[in-house]
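Model: You mentioned two targets. I'll fold them one after the other.
Researcher: Yes, keep them separate.
Model: Target one:
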Amino acid sequence: MKNENGFTLIEAIAALFIGSLMLMAIYTAVNSAQRTSTGVERRVIAQQDARSVLELIAMEVRMASYNPNSTTGNWLQSGDCTTVSANQNYRGIQEATATSITVEMDINGNCTSKDDPICMRDYTGNLNPNEIIRYNYDAANLYLTRQTQCGGAQPFLGDTVAHEVLNQSKSALVVNNTAGPGNTAIPVFRYYNGSGTEIAAPVTTEIPNIRRIEITLVVDTSTVDPVSGTRRRIIYSTSVIPRNHIPAPTY
């Protein structure tokens, strides 16, 4: 009698079951790898954005009180950019709080004498670009803004509206405040005098004594990590010595 080889129904079902398990395992591994890759990519983008922002803030804060003519000049009120500040000893730092800072500089060196009435402005009476810069942390909405020449504050890091206009997703949330995810309570700006003692913010009369400014950004990825189910947190910090911020000279 001829022996015919083949599969029984039970063997076929068992083979299908084993094959399904293998396909499911492969799919799970590929999907997990893709999710991990997406999470890493989002974290890298958030890191790059936060680092770039911190470097720019540090560079501009370092220029506070820059004046190539070394004259007293007329530093302006940061609120309107036209009125001369009542306290010229504040010089290039007219605002110093835990969440905001305003720095001023005379980039083009228009002050020709200590009595020049248009210091920080060109000879048509207009401010030169980027001579007054304000950074502000919106603790309620978890983003940072940058403002120049007392104009409108522009989204800088973590702003939702700006990214929606561009039809993009924001990379990070700035969560220095106590209301943010993780309940952090880290000031964006901290101020120190020449002996290294911290000056309590907001700083007013002691602004001339500021010798070092510590800037810290606590940033969460704007989207939840697909693997861990939580936001990834990054903390960047740097110290800046405003090289031009010294007590106003007397003549």
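Model: Target two:
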Amino acid sequence: MSGGAAPRRVYADLLKAYGPRGWWPVTVSRRRGPVYRPGFQGRLSSRQRAEVCVGAILTQNAAWTNVVKALACLHAAGLRDLESLARCRSARLARLIRSSGYFRQKARKLKAFARHALARGPLERWLGGAPLPALREELLSLWGVGPETADSILLYAGGREAFVADAYTLRLGRRLGWFGEEAGYEEAQSFLIERLPRDARLYAEVHALIVEHAKRHCRAKPSCPGCPLKPRCHHGQETPRA
């Protein structure tokens, strides 16, 4: 990896280009759906932490816009916490989250997570108290929770130092030369954790900026003109000028 493509430098470039992202969006005040809050430094409420966990499950194989629709339906139906989700009939829950896709499976996943979390006590204490490796393994043991979902819950709901190395991160990292084409989730995650300061807020901002950049420029078919990372990108340097 060249020094110019170091993760800290890439983070600085993306932050300059796009500004703070305000992830993870959560519902505030009387709104019926989540909103972004760039620069927010406060604590999440119990309901907001639960909403992050629900959103992390709903966003599996789904566009965020469709997840927002599902969350709005849940809120309108009065299902704003884990207790109500655990009590809700599976068929009704599936109908409410239909927009997120795979809705029957996701209804089962939500109920399984809600029941487990409730058995572990207050969400903030559970996610914030256990040693991180053990807590991650516990989440991964739950049906329907994979590495990306587990780390999203840990980072955004628990404020823990778990970097979310999603498909956007893998795509960007391969094009920047951070790791090879065969690299998987754990390798990408380890690469970034080893090269960034261990700070949950920083991890959240870096991940959110990577997602924003992937949507604007680093797409499956890249749009290199105007890309703020082009001078540092192996792929971008190989792209002919227009």
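Researcher: Noted. Anything on target two?
Model: The domain at 46-144 is CATH 1.10.340.30 (Endonuclease III; domain 1).
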